[in-house]
Amino acid sequence: MENTFFEAPEYPVLDRFKKSIILFSKYALALMATVLFIKILEYLYIGFKVQMPSEFLMLFFKALFFDVIFVLKSLPLLYVLYLLFFFSLKVKKHIYVATGIIFSVYILVYLLLLKYFFTALVPLGSDFYGYSYSEIKQTVSTGVSIDFLSVLILILPFAFLWIALKIADKANFINNRNSTFLLVIGMLLLWFNVSALPSATTFKKEYDYNVAINKQAFFFERSYAYFFDNEPNVDIYAANYFEDGADANNSLRPVMKYVNSAYPFLREENTVDVLSNFFKVDSAVRPNIVFIQVEGLGRAFSGPNAYLGSFTPFLDELRGRSLYFENFLAAQGRTFASLPSILGSLPFFNKGYNELGAKMPKAFTTLSLLKKNGYHSSFLMSTDEAFDNEGLFIKAQGVDQLISKSNFKEFPAAHNSYWGYPDLDLMKKAASYYAKLPSNKPFVSYIQTISMHTPYKVPEMNKYYDLMEVQMKKLGFDEENKSIHRTYKDQYATILYTDEAIRHLFQEFIKLPSYANTIFIITGDHRLPEIPMSTKIDRYHVPLIIFSPMLKRSASIRSVSSHLDIAPSLVKFLQNNYKLDMPNLVTWVGTGLDTVKQFRNIHRYPLKQTVSDLIDYVSGEYFLNGQTLYSMGDNFALQPIQDDSKQNQLVGEFNQYKSQNNQIIQSLKLLPDSLYRKFKP
Description:
single chain
């Protein structure tokens, strides 16, 4: 029969607590050792399967330090669970098993978050709470890959933990004093909420930071902020709320003249028409508008000065005949807000405008306003219209034709992936659709691609692997650079595939009579994260290409603009030149494109990183990420700075937006019904 852990029933309660702390501290050391073991496995996996970060040895020890901080912060909470078993179980072996189960769950969560990082190359944070179970299942299932090394990482830590617990159980170097000290340190770290995440400014690259952080600490700290951080209310009508300071661009900023406190984003439409100077205009013939939203298209691998080298040869060719915006920002770090941002310059609400589903408030968008003015409207996607409620959003704009995954029956069934049909099928479908449109009516159409998304598998992959090698040779890569890029060969091959698909669309479109009178607007929804990112703003850095045979001249523009500026500028251009009936009051968050050729930023706007994370803000030549302020240069070079006055200014501006956004979250009112009815599609 097993010996009981307590020598007698009258064993004093205080002594039991002392004994529980000593035993728990032994087990806690086993947990710390397991975390160290996982860190070693993590770096081995990254080195073999992904990309070793710069100065990895120093980074490893820095990461390990913060791992220890997080484990120490976790100990008081784990100890509470442990006590429940300690006082209910009398046999030491049973306590050992119960503790092993508690710690195994802790390690399991750690490993699942680590697996997510290996798939997405960004840590999972509070965005976890922004998606439904079906959306999470769809996203994760398309990116999961199983290989020998990943299986080892998911199995070995549990074996290591249980062996370490057994060794620790027999250790005799832990006494009451040092075991109590361990728990006290943990409680102090927890009480004062000491962060277990290092400062991002101490890392050269965003990827290095993402590798170094404890994925569990990141998840729980972002979760805590999501549930408990409250934003202050701000009077958005205060006449002198903003101070211009020393920023020379402030005097150039468009004024936002809000008109009704019940509708916090409702303001006078005062966008300056900057596009007319670039176009040959025949006011008697309204132009067609074609948007192409390219999944994952980032400037990191497209266009001039792309730091990874450009892998979009057709788009590069097209940009030479276009208005090309080099320093352009997506409004979001994921796809969820792309349609509302690009088409309507709409606020984010809580988890994105689309997340409201049937409760989406009435709004003006390019699609609805052009439909009201006699345009034929369409939306083409090769994915399921239900994802991100995109179908609901598009139908609310009164589109004449919505083509989605269910409309691709003529293409090979083998092409139909979990997400949908690949981009070349989509472009063939689009070309066929446009060829059938009547020539006597202008049209506006939106194409949304999907192939540049996990799992990065398209038809004829070997062909695009070969094209990748050709492109690297053209770019003059040395063998080391080629080797690094081959780590992400699926991603680069898919980028080349999508670029070829867009080329096909243009090759077919140029044959149509409508081509000569069409304006194409091409941008990325965000930069794909599965190739490591360099900075905090890299995920938003996408190109904007405005191409048309109607252009009088091309231009490469280095001033900053964003998705939120497209709708205001396009609507104003069409209104001024083609006498379209447009509202005098709007809810645009953006103020219109800036077409100055040199680098500058006259804008200020929020950037929503994920469905749940609204922590990024741009104003003038400054970027605020959480509590960290950066100066911002050409090609979005970032430099962390300490400037309390400037930081307070950006925080105040950001809080103004949040206050407006919080109000519409509660009211679900963007504009009065009477105004909407005048322009209802």
